[in-house]
Amino acid sequence: MAFLWSAALATVITYAVYAVYTVTYNACFHPLARFPGPPVARATIYWKAYVECIANRSFCHVLVELHARYGEIVRVGPNELHFANPKAYHDIYNNKNRWDKEARLYKSFGEDRSSFGFLTYAEAKNRKDVLNRAFSQAAIEGAESLVAEKTKALCAAFERQSKACKPADLFFAFRCMAMDVITVFCFGKPIHAVDAPDFKAPILLAMDAASVVFLRFKYSDLFKNIITKCPPKLSKIISPATAGLVDLQQLLRRQINDLTDDPEKLKFLPHNMTIYHRLMDAEAYRNKTVPSAGSLYEEAQALMFGGGDTVGNTMMVGTFHLLQQSDKLQKLKAELSEAWPSLNEHEPKLRDLEKMPYLNAVIKESLRLSSGVVSGLLRVVPPTGATIGAAVIPPGTIVSCGSTFVHYNAALFPKPDEFLPERWLGSTDSDNWLVAFSRGPRMCLGSNLAWAELRLGFAHVFRKFDMVAADPVPDKLPFRDTFLPSYHGTHLQVNMRPVDV
Ligand code: HEM
């Protein structure tokens, strides 16, 4: 018995000594010791895990408070820095840098065998080289009719909603449209999400449930010991609740397996250039080998997360602001009516929409305010070290500059909280600071597709409908940082009234 007590005591002392050593080293002797930050954050990664998973705070909002207190560079973990100066954005994310993505964050999505999830530049490049052709400007122009068809299906659903005297929930509706586009583009098989009652498509509900789960997966190794040893009530709070993710995976697996089980089926799809045609073509790969079924699944999940919420959120945020400012709404409608005088003829093509200044300014302003991904895109400084802003950063440091710190910077975008499409007119100077799709070798693969959806989406919806926000009208669209923004406030519901001509 005495032996057991001694062994237990020795274990406790060993852990305590190790903890004191680690904390002292991190606070005083670590290569990042000179950078300011909350004392606990400087000492242990458990601080960030606590903030995100137990205090349930939105990290991009916490960062605003930290920068106000500690200055332009904040040490948010023993080995992690966040930069608030927009110049740092271009120092980190540019075509010369082939920095790795950071493992803890990117492995948490369970997609680390996909173009999005591969940690290294080389692996991602191999996969993106295969996919780029399917997402090129020319390929998207070739798929214009597909995107237009899904936009029209959304408009038809809005008409049905209007006939039934029911408002449309735009939090769901726009994301349904984007999901329909990406599933056809990927698999050639529509899931008709826009036709779900009240736009509550099961796949969207599953994805919403999964977004917080990813946050918890990020720290699951840290919490593993505590979860197994702590009382059930606490363990429920901090353990990864996987229900949403399981639903999503089952839905996706069903769709993907349907095609990947029998590649011959690809031949019978309505158009012959789905992303899966590319992915399943061994000739497209340098090693002439099609990726494993697991990697194909992860690619599909990455494309659905990447292509659904982002486009839908951008449209919802833009519409929210347009409905609050009737002068800007009328300007957009006037430009659309001039280009498309009668709904029965001369429907504008993407090429026409690209030339419409106000429409494109509205889209840029919507991208700025919704910001795409709101978390810092974590990168690891290579063995040569780096200079970010004026600071010399040691090798191995995890660094990021969140897009919201660029998009909401008052020096770059005066009155940053206001929706002012006019700021994009007349000059392209600000384009350098629109970083919703990120920059450098890991920038968005689907930006051409996204622009096509946004142009056709805004053009059709605002040309074909007069809209009035339904009660209760949200006065803002609060979100939580779950990598993408998760909007948790009152949903934007809108009465859609079809216009006659
Ligand atoms: C408004 C719409 C969109 C926005 C704002 C957006 C934003 C972004 C951002 C910020 C990244 C960088 C993520 C990171 O570094 O970890 C990214 C990557 C990516 N996006 Fe998008 N995206 C949009 C639409 C799409 C669409 C439609 C697709 C395709 C279906 C797509 C597919 C991807 C993929 C595969 C990556 C990973 C690229 C890589 O890691 O190298 N995105 N996107």
From TrEMBL:
GO molecular function: heme binding; iron ion binding; monooxygenase activity; oxidoreductase activity, acting on paired donors, with incorporation or reduction of molecular oxygen
Cofactor(s) named in the record: heme
Keywords attached to this entry: Heme, Iron, Metal-binding, Monooxygenase, Oxidoreductase
Pfam families on file: p450
Signal peptide as annotated in the record: none
Recorded superkingdom: Eukaryota
Annotated residues for binding of heme: 444
Family stated for the protein in its record: Belongs to the cytochrome P450 family.
Name recorded for this polypeptide: Cytochrome P450 monooxygenase-like protein
Gene source species: Massariosphaeria phaeospora
Biological classification of the source: Eukaryota, Fungi, Dikarya, Ascomycota, Pezizomycotina
